[in-house]
Each structure stands twice: as structure tokens, then as C-alpha cells.
Specification:
heterodimer; A: about 375 residues; mainly alpha; 16 helices; globular; B: mainly alpha; 18 helices
């Protein structure tokens, strides 16, 4: 007999889907990371165009993943959506603002009569390249460090600082994750450019920059991971729903969920292997290892933020207002309906891979940029 | 149970959402319609192998690309503004509203974004048939994304398929299919996408007429007019049909909005349809609100009764019936609804108190109350009225609703005429000689866009004061943030969207003047 699927199962399943979408988003932000090198790697106009076109053919994936991440969060954990977006207003607005600039910049930058000149749109791309990963990293770090909000009996949020989310950048752990994400996506951006652009000068310059971005990434990443593993975490009692501070909570989560630990370690090793492959062997395939490592590492971090009786969006103002995957989720029926829809995800991933391959089969070359075809 | 909300905050939050929605709707209709026009053209190219059709496809595709990105950019803000500016609303409806948004992302956005890259960059990288398939998938994906957001919007106009859970203080989905096939959603989806098809057709026809005026690219322009003319005529006829169906549905589910856009102050039998009219103040008031009367009108006898009830003798209730009630016609007053809403609200307060006091017997009783069909149908359905202080507050802006509706309808009939004439002139081979007509079509390009915006103004302003019909007023749904924050972002977005719109128009004009190059 097939056991009935419980609400708890659906809540766990949707936290996994959200974590997966979040991790794919961080990987796909290689587009943002790459954008930060438009001027430093592209010494000449044509080189800059090649870099922009390599990244520009993928910007929609990042954008769509962000939108889907937001929509899926709204649908599966609406209390997070209303609390975080309605409370940490300025952080989210700043992130979205930078994405608006990005969306138009690719299409407009090389078009005649674009009024502001292509340098302006390139500057917008660079701005988005720095702002979005850094702020998303800071926002995600609050899953571990908490935010100052309270909820009324009708679950209406009140942000308890006048800064509406901007205060998150004053927390050193949040900053560490913000910078770690920034340098990680820059690394991925470099490796993607190495993989896609067929130009010796860009290849050489990008290789040199890999090592200079690896060091700060490792420093900030280790600072963040070590600090959360040794500090107190936000434990939620599954029966009573009470939230309390627990020593070594996130370390315990890793220890009590060995599969998640394996995913985390595999992810970190994969990132390091991808970097070594690029630095030592001068390989063009590093992106596939750092990319999959990024997905696994971020996935495991998000899983320990929500699973194993953990409040994934803690309130430091009133611990009992913290959000858990139990109290913030949608109803049984909604999660069930969405679970059925989610079965289409493998099909979506399959056609994305097929289309991606079709376009990336040929590398970006100077000839293509001068061919008169659609070029950003 | 609700904190005091600054009315200024509500107004600025509404203004910001309206600003984003209006700008978004400047770009989306072209994406919806032009994607299909491109797909038609490319299909002909693949079938015939003639390069001229490829040239046509690529020219319109370039314009599609310029417009597409800015539509995407304004869309992302809309999605997240539900959370940033309407967080209380997001919680109250998230269990229902979020699902269509998530499905939109998974099913539609990925389809669109994956294949749009193949469509633009795949001409020399994939074979013809796969490229054509990609173009069709972009069109289908774009229109599917419209479906899901419109399902969500329709639920706000007519909340169905859910139950209220006092424990979580929110509405929860009971029937997904009822939400998806909400009669408002069906009408709204078909009406909205066909309005996009009409705009795109007028856009293609208008630009093609400009080429004819300039005596350039005559074969190219003729073929474009042929495709856009047929598509536009079919779409504009369908638009009229879905508009009629939509109005009939509104008369049932949002009767005050219906009475407002018909400016029907007093109910009547054999109600005429006002085809054209000018309103003026009548001096009559309901509460503190003026009820306008007609300074001048052209009306068709009995038609409103026929259109709403299928019977010329039928009684069509007016605004006064809806506010004061009309027991003879089975209409209850707003005051009565407010009483019922307050009873529902008090039960919710009692439930929260019972929870605090851990009074299990009371908790069970009240939970059963919220599950009781009679309570749900006769009390909870008026939950939002508990927040209404004066009955006349439920009347939307009558002048705005009336004029936006009637101008939209008149423009709709004008489009049928323009597309019909274009096809007649094209088939009898005289279109190049009809300079006056070519100019009219050129100058008509913005008209479907204006009609579309009027439609949205009617939909959203006519819904006031509700953010969810009868369940939640806008003042309760707003996020608890400072007015100054929203004012700042309002001006920031105004500046940004305007700057981008100007850029898009400038690039578009340059590309059009350059003409087809491939």
C-alpha cells in the first residue's frame, strides 16, 4: 500500500526545490560575474563585444531563474515572501533595480541611436555584475544571522529598524557571504568566458585573473562557513514550534544529515578542482566543475538553513516570530498541486541543455561578431 | 486587528504599482502579438524557401528583440512588488496567488527565454525546422506567461476555489481547476492576448504603410500588411466577442464596477446600452458621493438588459440598488454586508483569543464555524466589508470607469474598420494609391496600446476599493513601510522607465528607417 504523502513531506520537498533554484541562480550568476570583466578583459572594442556576446546569450537564463525563484518562494513559502520582501524593502529594490539595468543593456548597447552610448550600457552591466551577487549573498546570509522583524497575529510584518534591510550590510558575516558570492561568480564568469570565447588574448588575461579571484573567494567563503559552524544557530522545535538559540546548530545539521555534508564537501572539492584545472592545466573546461560545485555547495548551505528543525528566516527581534519551513509554507493542497507541476522540471532542464548546446557548439569568434548577424 | 495605515502610503503604493503596470503594458502587447506574426512569416519562409520571407522575418524579429528586453525588465519589478509593496496582501492570498506565478516561471518563462536565444542567435547554428520550432515556442511561451499572471489577477477580481483558514489567517486553495477556469480568467486571458495581437498587427501595418508612403520596400510592405491585416482583423473581431463576454461576467461578479462603467445610477427594466455619452454632475448624492447624469448620450434601447440577462425586459441594477440594497430584487445593502463582515471578523478575533488562552473547546467550535457552509456563503464572503466605514466607499470612480470603458470599446470598433479597409485595398491593388489611408494607419499605431491601457485602468480602478473583491480592501493589503521609501522608489522607477522608453523609441525609429538589411 502506498503511504499517504504528508504536508511535512511536501514542505521538505519544496524547501529542496527552492534550495535547488537558489543554487542554480548562484551558478547562473556567472553572467553577472563575467560582466565585471567587460573592460578589464576586453582591451579593444571587438574583444569587449565578444565577451558581452558570450555572456549575453545566457542572461535570460539567470533572469528567468531569479523570477522563478521568487515565484516559487511566493507559492511555497508565502510568509517568507511577504515578510522578507515587504520588510527588507531596500535590499530587494536595489537588487531588482540592477536587474532592470541589465535586462535592457545587452539589447541596447550596440544599437544605433541608443542615446546614452554603449559605454553607459556597459557600465550598467558592470554595476549589475557587482551589485546583484553581492546583495543576494548578503540577503541569503540573513538566513543564518537573522533579521529584525516582528509579525502580528494576522502575520503582517513590521520591520523593526528604519533601514528596511540595508542594516544587513553592517553584519560582518553577511558581508563575508556577500563577498564570497561575488568572487565566486566572478570566478565562474572568467571560466565561462575561457570556455566560450575563441580569442588568445582574452584567454591569457582571463587565466591570470582566475588566481586573483580564487584567493579572496576562499578567504571570504571560509570566514563565513567557519563563523556559522562555530556560532549559535536558530533551532525550531518541530512539535511546539518554539525557536531557540542552539550552540553549533549548523555544524550539528551537517553532522546529523551526512548526505548533505557529502553534497557540501563534493561541491567544495569540485570548485577547487575546476579552478586547478584552469590554472594548472590551462583547461577550458573548468567552468563545468566550478559550476556544478557551486550548485552543490549552495544547495547544501540552503538545506542546512531550513532542514533538521532550523528556522530558515530567523527574527532576532523576537525569536518566536522566526520563519520555519513548517510555519511559513503553503497549504497541503497548494504544495501538492505545485508538486505535480514540478514533475515537468526535468523536461524543462532537458530542453534548456539541448538549446544551450545548440548555441554553444561554436565558440564566439571575431568572424561571427563581424558577420552582420544578431550581435549585442 | 489592523494597525493604522497611513492613507498616503496606500496612495503611493498604488501609484507605484500602477506606474509599473502601465509601463509593463506598453511593451508586453507587442511581444504577445509580434511573436506570432514572426512565426507566421518564418513558417512561410520554411515552406516556400523564398529569401524574401526570411528577410521579412528577420526585420520584424529585430524590432521584437528591442522591445522584448524592456518588457522583461518591467515584468520582474511587477512580480516582486506584490511582496515589497503589498506584503499583507501577499500573505492573505499567497497560498493561491503564488502558485500561478510559480507555474508561470516553470512552464512559460523558461520556454520563452530558452528559445528566444535560439531564435536570435541560431540562424546559422541550428537547422531551419528547429529554428522555426524555436520561434513558435517563443510565441507560445510568451502567451502562456500571460495566462498565469492573468489567472492570478482574475482571482483578485473574483476569488474562487479557496477557503479561509483562521489558524493561518489566510485563504487556502481548495480547487486548482476552479482557480484556473475562473470565468473572469478565461475572459481576461482571451481578451488580453487578443488585444496584444491587435496592437502588434497595427504596429506591423503602420510601419509597412510608412514604407509605402516613402515608396520603399513595396513588396516587403505589402506582404507584411497581408499577414498583419488578416491576423489583426481576426484578432479584433475576437476581441469584440471576448469583450462582450467579459462585460457580462463582470455584471455578475463585480456588479458595482459594472454599474459604474455603464454610469447606471438607478436600476431599470429594459435598460438601454449607452453607446456614447458625456457625463455631468447631477446634484444627486449617495452618502458623500456624487452620482453623475448624462449631458448627452446615444443609446440603444433594451440592449443592456439583453446583453446582461438575455432578456429585454430584465432588470439591470444600478449603483443605488447596490449600495442601499433592493430586497425586491434580492440585493442586500452594503450596510448589511458590513454587519456580516464584522461578525466574521469578530469570530476571527475570538479564535485568536481562544488560541492565546488555549481554550480548546472554543478553538474547535470556531474552527467548525469557519468550515460551515452557511457562514462562509453568508458571512465570510463579506469579510472585507468589516473595514468599510461608509457604504459609498465601495463605489469606484464612476467618471474614470465610464470613459475608459467607452473609449476602449469605440477604439475596438475602429480597429475592425481599419483592418477591413486595409485588406480590401490590398486585395484590389489600390493600397499604394490610398495615401490618406496609409497615413491613418501610421498614426493609428498607438491607438490599440491606448485601448489596452484604458482596459487595465478600468479593470484595476473599477475594482477599488478592493484588492481582493469583497475580502480585502487595498488599504489593508499594503506593506508596512515608510511613505518616503515608496515615494523615493516611485520617482526612481518613473525616471528609469521613462529614460528606457525614450531609448527604446529612439532605437526602434532608427531601425525602422534603416529598413530590412539581411
Amino acid at each position: 500500500m502506498v503511504p499517504m504523502i504528508t504536508h511535512i513531506f511536501y514542505q521538505d520537498y519544496w524547501w529542496f526545490i527552492i534550495s535547488l533554484l537558489g543554487s542554480l541562480l548562484v551558478f547562473l550568476m556567472f553572467v553577472q560575474g563575467g560582466q565585471t570583466f567587460i573592460f578589464s578583459l576586453g582591451k579593444e572594442n571587438l574583444q569587449r563585444t565578444m565577451i558581452v556576446n558570450a555572456l549575453g546569450r545566457k542572461w535570460e537564463f539567470t533572469f528567468t531563474t531569479l523570477v522563478t525563484f521568487g515565484g516559487a518562494f511566493f507559492a511555497s513559502f508565502p510568509l517568507f515572501y511577504s515578510t522578507s520582501f515587504g520588510g527588507a524593502y531596500w535590499v530587494w529594490i536595489a537588487i531588482l533595480f540592477s536587474f532592470i539595468l541589465q535586462a535592457v543593456s545587452y539589447e541596447f548597447r550596440s544599437k544605433p541611436s541608443n542615446i546614452y552610448g554603449s559605454e553607459t550600457f556597459d557600465f550598467f552591466l558592470i554595476l549589475n555584475g557587482y551589485m546583484a551577487p553581492f546583495l543576494i549573498g548578503v540577503a541569503v546570509a540573513t538566513f543564518f544571522t537573522g533579521s529584525q522583524f516582528s509579525l502580528s497575529t494576522l502575520n503582517h510584518v513590521k520591520w523593526e529598524t528604519p533601514w528596511h534591510g540595508l542594516e544587513a550590510v553592517l553584519n560582518i558575516k553577511n558581508l563575508a557571504l556577500g563577498f564570497a558570492v561575488l568572487f565566486l561568480v566572478r570566478l565562474n564568469g572568467l571560466l565561462y568566458i575561457i570556455n566560450t570565447v575563441d580569442d588568445d588574448s582574452i584567454f591569457l588575461h582571463a587565466h591570470k585573473k582566475v588566481i586573483f579571484n580564487t584567493i579572496p573567494f576562499l578567504v571570504f567563503f571560509l570566514c563565513f562557513v567557519i563563523s556559522i559552524l562555530i556560532s549559535k544557530g536558530f533551532a525550531a522545535d518541530d512539535t511546539s514550534g518554539t525557536v531557540s538559540l542552539e550552540k553549533f546548530k549548523y555544524l550539528n545539521n551537517f553532522l546529523e544529515m551526512p548526505l548533505v555534508s557529502i553534497v557540501f564537501l563534493t561541491g567544495v572539492v569540485s570548485i577547487l578542482y575546476g579552478i586547478l584545472l584552469a590554472v594548472i592545466r590551462k583547461s577550458r573546461k573548468g567552468i563545468w566543475f566550478t559550476g556544478s560545485g557551486t550548485v552543490l555547495t549552495v544547495l547544501s548551505l540552503l538545506l542546512i538553513a531550513g532542514y533538521n528543525g532550523t528556522a530558515f528566516y530567523p527574527s532576532t527581534f523576537d525569536l518566536q516570530n522566526s520563519l520555519t519551513i513548517r510555519n511559513a509554507s503553503s497549504s497541503y493542497f497548494t504544495l501538492k498541486a505545485m508538486t505535480i507541476v514540478s514533475f515537468i522540471i526535468p523536461f524543462v532542464l532537458a530542453y534548456i541543455c539541448y538549446a544551450w548546446r545548440s548555441i554553444n557548439r561554436k565558440k564566439i569568434t571575431e568572424e561571427e561578431m563581424n558577420s552582420g548577424e544578431h550581435v549585442y | 486587528m489592523i494597525e493604522n495605515i497611513d492613507p498616503g502610503l496606500v496612495d503611493w503604493s498604488r501609484a507605484q504599482f500602477a506606474l509599473t503596470a502601465i509601463y509593463h503594458w506598453l511593451f508586453v502587447p507587442l511581444t504577445l502579438g509580434l511573436s506570432f506574426i514572426i512565426a507566421f512569416m518564418e513558417t512561410i519562409y520554411v515552406k516556400t524557401g523564398k529569401d524574401e520571407w526570411r528577410r521579412l522575418t528577420r526585420f520584424w524579429m529585430t524590432l521584437f528583440g528591442i522591445n522584448f528586453a524592456i518588457g522583461v525588465a518591467t515584468g520582474i519589478i511587477l512580480e516582486f512588488e506584490f511582496g515589497t509593496n503589498w506584503s499583507n496582501y501577499s500573505w492573505f492570498v499567497g497560498d493561491i496567488f503564488g502558485a500561478p506565478l510559480a507555474i508561470e516561471g516553470i512552464l512559460a518563462f523558461f520556454l520563452e527565454s530558452t528559445f528566444v536565444a535560439v531564435m536570435f542567435f541560431g540562424w546559422n547554428k541550428v537547422n531551419k525546422k528547429f529554428h522555426l520550432l524555436s520561434t513558435w515556442l517563443v510565441a507560445i511561451g510568451a502567451n502562456l506567461s500571460a495566462l498565469w499572471i492573468l489567472v492570478a489577477n482574475s482571482w483578485m477580481q473574483n476569488p474562487v476555489g479557496m477557503t479561509f483558514n483562521p489558524e493561518t489567517a489566510r485563504n487556502e486553495m481548495l480547487n486548482f481547476w476552479e482557480v484556473l477556469f475562473n470565468p473572469v480568467a478565461v475572459d481576461k486571458f482571451l481578451h488580453t492576448i487578443s488585444s496584444g495581437f491587435v496592437f502588434a498587427s497595427m504596429f506591423v501595418m503602420g510601419i509597412s504603410c510608412w514604407f509605402l508612403i516613402k515608396k520603399r520596400e513595396e513588396i516587403f510592405a505589402g506582404r507584411s500588411i497581408l499577414i498583419a491585416g488578416i491576423f489583426g482583423l481576426a484578432s479584433s473581431l475576437f476581441l469584440a466577442f471576448t469583450g462582450d463576454s467579459s462585460a457580462r461576467t463582470i455584471s455578475k461578479v463585480q456588479p458595482v464596477k459594472f454599474a459604474a462603467f455603464e454610469a447606471l445610477s438607478e436600476g431599470k427594466e429594459n435598460a438601454p446600452l449607452v453607446a456614447f455619452g458625456v457625463l455631468k454632475e447631477s446634484g444627486k448624492k449617495i452618502g458623500s458621493r456624487d452620482l453623475p447624469e448624462f449631458l448627452f448620450k446615444i443609446e440603444i434601447p433594451d440592449l443592456l438588459s439583453v446583453m446582461t440577462e438575455g432578456n429585454k425586459d430584465a432588470y439591470v441594477p444600478g449603483i443605488i440598488d447596490r449600495i442601499n440594497g433592493n430586497p425586491g430584487k434580492g440585493i442586500i445593502s452594503v450596510a448589511e454586508k458590513t454587519e456580516k463582515g464584522k461578525i466574521a471578523m469578530n469570530y476571527l478575533s475570538d479564535y485568536k483569543k481562544a488560541r492565546e488562552n488555549k481554550d480548546n473547546e472554543q478553538i474547535t467550535n470556531l474552527l467548525n464555524k469557519f468550515k460551515d457552509k452557511d457562514f462562509r456563503d453568508n458571512y465570510f464572503r463579506y469579510f472585507g466589508y468589516a473595514y468599510i466605514s461608509s457604504p459609498e466607499d465601495v463605489i469606484p470612480d464612476i467618471y474614470g470607469s465610464f470613459y475608459s470603458f467607452h473609449m476602449m470599446v469605440m477604439l475596438g470598433f475602429l480597429f475592425i474598420l481599419i483592418f477591413s479597409l486595409a485588406l480590401i485595398f490590398l486585395f484590389n491593388g489600390t493600397i499604394i494609391k490610398q495615401k490618406w489611408f496609409l497615413r491613418i494607419v501610421l498614426y493609428s499605431i498607438p491607438l490599440p496600446l491606448i485601448a489596452g491601457e484604458l482596459g487595465w485602468i478600468l479593470t484595476e480602478m473599477g475594482r477599488q476599493p478592493w484588492i481582493i473583491q469583497d475580502l480585502m480592501p487595498v488599504s489593508v493589503g499594503v506593506s508596512n513601510i515608510g511613505k518616503a521609501s515608496v515615494q523615493t522608489t516611485f520617482w526612481l522607477f518613473t525616471f528609469l522607465f521613462t529614460a528606457l522608453l525614450i531609448t527604446e523609441i529612439s532605437i526602434m525609429i532608427k531601425q525602422i528607417k534603416t529598413g530590412p538589411t539581411h
